[in-house]
């Protein structure tokens, strides 16, 4: 018997699912059958519905609701059938239908049909964001209950009344975020949730409980199909229905998405086990496939459940939820851990108040350089079920969480929020709000720091990480803090065949010549994504066995906002005639004085001679056409000589280096623009022989 992420994060988390201890009112056959025509089939539907209804599990209740609705086509006025239909629909978040059926039966019968009829009507009203009506119904529903029922429902009713008051308050406030259901076929009649975006492969990973892959095999705990991990990609903003990952990621039981690190090489998944659930890690292999997941011992603890982990933007911090008892605030709490330079994670620490409460806090993620924490909670600040909230870190402490508002949250569950890596405003989450197709559906979300009176639209999904700011025609200016980050992504291929290459990419801080990140592309895929915080000058070097290395320079001022650059790299084979631009070789303006920021690039070029001891390279200098030709020819030659002199000083033999100055005679761009002239001022390395 395996527990799923959805069970853990819903029923077992105390998500205010109605507590059943009685199966009445009974649907009387004599009162239900009104005419011979269709009576046999109608009663059969009632009996099948009853058989599933008594299990009181979500999968069974979904089937019960379907058969009860068929029976209602025969007799739509039977009070007991209406009650059971409405209660079944509450269980599976068919909230509009539940409200219709429960309102019908309560209007005609009050609580005489069942002591908790108005209680369930109030839940349906809350689920449909009718907070005024729900508050009134919750206030009166306990008045006619016996002490036994009052004891069972009183604490839940008290919490729901607070949530309805929160909902009434939020209807008068400006929202802090907006959302839109994903276009395309990614959402189905089954549950889709826990979305995480893989920047490296531009795929959305998510969890679904679909018929595919399991056929008639269901989880014995809730009679739902087992969880599996899927991927989806957008075409012109329209998302595909999803492709189920094969083994070893998906097995015969529950497998659910949790997180992916920024390099796209490690994914955390949740696997339910008998009596608990744990986090597992899997690594992406060079062929693009995933390794067998292994239990992540750093975060799991015996006799507790760990769920919904998320990494910070630089993957040096993580947050996850656990129901461990030792330092718990109550229910599931959020914990954090940090990773040191050697890759070792610290002992998890409880966030404490005001993040954690006596209720449940789950599915968190960091934002704004780890100064914001988004998470879901079913406490009194929710408007019902789980709501998305945000807390900011100021003055050395986490502040009181704030509800993101009714543009995102509803009277039912809203959770599993994750931001697109490098974008502090746009992400994904899962919601059971009205207008959905199944249990949970996946939505896009855009966070607005300051509550907005007039809401913008989500940017069109031309590219997933759309960097263009939407127009914000607001009476009060909306301050949107943007993470100052540049995303560079693309593919590495062979120059001639465009075959995808396995390549090593190093990011170097030119000011210190320190390598700050190294990633390896996957053979047969060639994709890469790197994140460059603003305020530094970076060298990006791409190398692959049998090819000339390639370099790029990114000088990103401190004031630069979020941007995305696509840079496809084509590598030349190590053959005579191949040449590369040394983009990270710098000189003082108008001089041949080699600047220290150039040393890292030239050291990497010197390493090539270790692999090819007979290599002969021409170092050539080039200029734009500004100034006299003679002066430019002299400057270009002197700069080439300065590079050669440095390489000799670090051990490259003089006989393997040739200095040439070509002045403005070999332009690679126009000289009519500042950008073109900048591209023409360069140093190149060309293979003469090897």
How would you describe the overall organization of this protein?
- The chain is an alpha+beta fold.
- It folds into four domains: 15-170, Tetratricopeptide repeat domain (Serine Threonine Protein Phosphatase 5, Tetratricopeptide repeat, Alpha Horseshoe), CATH 1.25.40.10; 177-447, Neuraminidase (6 Propeller), CATH 2.120.10; 484-573, Sandwich (Immunoglobulin-like); 578-690, 2-Layer Sandwich (60s Ribosomal Protein L30, Chain: A), CATH 3.30.1330.60.
- It is built from twelve helices and 35 strands.
- The strands form nine sheets. Strands 16, 17, 18, 19 and 20 form a five-stranded antiparallel sheet that branches. Strands 1-23-22-21 form a four-stranded antiparallel sheet, with no helix packed on it.
- Strand 28 (536-543) and strand 29 form a beta hairpin.
- Helix 5 (79-91) packs antiparallel against helix 6 (95-109) and helix 6 (95-109) packs antiparallel against helix 7 (117-127).
- The longest helix is centred in the N-terminal third of the chain and has 24 residues, at 147-170.
- It is elongated and about 105 Å long.
- Mean pLDDT is 85; it is low at 7-16 and 461-483.
């Amino acid at each position: 018997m395996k527990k799923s992420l959805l069970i853990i994060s819903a029923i077992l988390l105390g998500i205010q699912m109605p507590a059943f201890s009685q199966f009445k009112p009974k649907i009387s056959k004599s009162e239900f059958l009104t005419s011979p025509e269709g009576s046999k089939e109608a009663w059969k539907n009632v009996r099948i519905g009853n058989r599933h209804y008594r299990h009181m599990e979500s999968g069974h209740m979904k089937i019960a609701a379907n058969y009860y609705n068929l029976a209602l086509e025969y007799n739509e006025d039977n009070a007991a059938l209406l009650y059971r239909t409405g209660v079944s629909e509450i269980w599976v978040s068919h909230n509009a239908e539940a409200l219709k059926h429960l309102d019908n039966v309560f209007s005609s019968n009050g609580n005489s049909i069942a002591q908790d009829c108005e209680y369930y009507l109030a839940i349906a009203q809350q689920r449909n964001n009718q907070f005024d009506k729900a508050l009134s119904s919750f206030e009166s529903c306990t008045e006619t209950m016996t002490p036994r029922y009052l004891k069972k429902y009183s604490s839940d009713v008290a919490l729901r009344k607070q949530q309805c008051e929160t909902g009434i308050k939020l209807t008068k406030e400006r929202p802090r975020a907006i959302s839109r259901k994903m276009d395309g076929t990614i959402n189905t009649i089954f549950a889709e949730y826990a979305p995480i975006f893989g920047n490296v492969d531009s795929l959305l990973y998510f969890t679904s409980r679909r018929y595919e892959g399991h056929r008639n095999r269901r989880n014995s705990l809730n009679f739902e199909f087992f969880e599996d991990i899927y991927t989806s990609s957008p075409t012109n903003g329209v998302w595909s229905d999803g492709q189920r990952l094969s083994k070893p990621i998906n097995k015969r039981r529950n497998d659910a998405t949790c997180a992916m690190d920024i390099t796209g090489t490690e994914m955390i998944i949740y696997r339910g086990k008998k009596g608990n659930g744990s986090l597992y890690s899997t690594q992406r292999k060079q062929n693009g496939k995933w390794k067998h997941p292994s239990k992540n011992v750093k975060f799991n603890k015996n006799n507790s459940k760990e769920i919904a982990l998320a990494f910070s933007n630089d993957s040096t911090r993580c947050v996850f939820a656990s129901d461990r008892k030792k330092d718990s605030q109550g229910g599931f709490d959020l914990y954090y851990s940090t990773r040191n330079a050697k890759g070792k994670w610290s002992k998890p620490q409880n966030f404490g108040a005001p993040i954690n409460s006596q209720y449940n806090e789950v599915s968190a993620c960091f934002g704004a350089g780890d100064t914001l924490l988004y998470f879901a909670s079913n406490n009194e600040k929710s408007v019902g079920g789980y709501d998305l909230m945000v807390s900011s870190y100021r003055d050395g402490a986490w502040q009181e969480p704030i509800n993101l508002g009714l543009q995102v949250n509803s009277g039912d569950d809203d959770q599993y929020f994750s931001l697109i890596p490098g974008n502090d405003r746009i992400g994904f989450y899962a919601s059971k709000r009205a207008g959905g197709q199944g249990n949970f559906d996946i939505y896009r979300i855009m966070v607005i720091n300051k509550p907005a009176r007039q809401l913008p639209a989500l940017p069109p999904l031309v590219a997933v990480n759309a960097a263009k700011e939407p127009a914000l025609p607001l009476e009060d200016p909306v301050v949107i803090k943007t993470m100052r980050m540049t995303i560079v992504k693309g593919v590495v291929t062979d120059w001639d065949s465009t075959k995808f290459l396995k390549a090593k990419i190093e990011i170097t801080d030119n000011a210190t010549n320190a390598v700050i990140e190294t990633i390896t592309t996957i053979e047969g895929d060639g994709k890469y994504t790197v994140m460059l915080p603003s305020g530094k000058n970076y060298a990006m070097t791409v190398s692959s066995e049998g090819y000339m290395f390639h370099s790029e320079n990114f000088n990103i001022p401190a004031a630069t906002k979020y941007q995305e650059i696509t840079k496809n790299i084509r590598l030349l084979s190590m053959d005579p005639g191949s040449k590369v631009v040394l983009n990270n070789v710098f000189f003082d303006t108008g001089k041949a004085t080699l600047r220290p920021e150039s040393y890292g690039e030239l050291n990497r070029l010197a390493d090539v001679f270790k692999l090819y001891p007979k290599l002969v390279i021409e170092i050539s200098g080039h200029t734009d056409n500004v100034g006299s030709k003679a002066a430019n020819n002299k400057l270009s030659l002197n700069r080439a000589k300065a590079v050669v002199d440095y390489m000799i000083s670090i051990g490259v033999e003089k006989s393997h280096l040739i200095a040439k100055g070509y002045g403005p005679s070999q332009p690679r761009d126009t000289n009519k623009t500042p950008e073109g002239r900048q591209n023409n001022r360069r140093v190149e390395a060309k293979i003469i022989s090897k």
